[in-house]
Amino acid sequence: MAGKNFEIGVSTISGGAVANIFKIFKENKIESQYYPRVVASVLFSMFAEPFRWWEHLRYDVRINSFQIENDPVFILGHWRSGTTHLHNLMSKDTQFGYVTTYQGVFPELLLGSSWLFKTFMKMMMPEKRASDNVVLSADYPQEEEFALGNMNPYGYYNFWYFPKDTKRDYERFIEFKGASPAHFSRWKADYLRLAKKSLLNTNRKRFISKNPPHTGRIKQLLELFPNAKFVHIYRNPVVIFISTKKLIESTMPALQFQDITSEELEENILWVYEQIMQAYLRDRALIPPQNLIELRFEDFEKNTLPELERIYGQLHIPGFEAAKPYFQQYIDAQKSYEKNKHTLPRATVDKITSRWKFAMEQWGYNLPENLEISD
Q1: pTM for the complete prediction?
Q2: Which of left, alpha, beta for 220 (phi over 0: left; psi -120 to 50: alpha)?
Q3: Roughly what angle, to the nearest 10 degrees, separates helices 262-283 and 346-355?
Q4: With contact defined as beta carbons under 8 Å apart, do 180 and 153 qualify?
C-alpha cells in the first residue's frame, strides 16, 4: 500500500527514545521517499529526550515500589472484533485504570511533562478515527502495543512503519521466536512498568488492557499475572477482514516508512488472522476456566448490559451495580454511531472463507446477509 496522501509529519515512533528509534531503523529498510518523515520523527524525539530523563529521575523510585494489588483484566480479540467498544465501556467503571491514547504514544512522558506533549498530540489528532468514525481523545482508553514499541524495540506495531516485515515481526514479537532471555525479561519489565504507570496516571485500582496482539500472548501474560481475568470477544471473520483492511489503509499512510501493495496487505491480514486465532484456540486452555469468558460481538451489540453483567459475574469482578449508570450513559451516547457499508470481490471472499474456515466453523459464522459481492 503506497502512501498516496503522504505528508511529512511525525510518526508515532517519535514517542520513543532516540536510541530505541535507531535500533528499530537498523533492522528495517527505510524507503527514500520517507526520509523527510524519518528526520522529523527523530528531531521530535531528540527534543523530548531531556523530558524522558527527567521522568526517570523523578518517578522511577515511585513506579518501582508501586504494587499491582488486583488481578488485571485482559480483553482479547482480533483487531476490529469489538475490543475497542468493550474496552471503552468497561473503562467507565471507576475501578479500572488503563493506558490512555496519550500514554500509548508517549509512555515515558506521562507523569512529568504530559502538560506539554499532550498539547502537541491534541493539535495533531483527528476528532474521529478514519476507519469507523469512533471519537478520539488523548485521554481515552487505548491499546498498549504502540507504547511497548516506544519503550523497547520489541513492539509488534513496528509493522505499521515497516509493513513488508509484518510476518517476521509477528513471529519475533508475538510468538517470541528466537527471543533471548534478555529480550523477554526486558519485555516483561517494561510491560509491568507500563501497567503501573497507567494505574498511577488514572488513579485507579485494577488494570484493564485491550491489546489485540495479546490474543497470541496468553502464555506470556500468565507468567506475569497467573490469576488474570480474560475476556475474548469474537466477530464474523468476513466483517473482520473488511474492517481490518480499511483500518490499515486509512491509518498507515501517516505512520509508514516503506510501501506495501494492496495484494501484500491482504496476504498479511489473512496470515496474521490465521496465526493469532489459532494461537488463541490452542492456548486458551492454559487459562483457568473461571478466569475466561468468551463473548460474541453480535450478542454484545444487541444485549450490551446483560452481557456486561455476565462478564462481571462469571469472572467474579465486583462493582457491576455501582458502575451500571456509567455504562448506560455510554451506551446511550453510542446510539448515533455511524457504521460503514462495504463490498468485496468474489475472489477475496473465496480466500477468506477458505483460509479462515476454521474460525467460521468454530464460532458458527456464515457470510453476512448484507454483504455485497462483486465479480
Answers
A1: 0.94
A2: alpha
A3: 20
A4: no
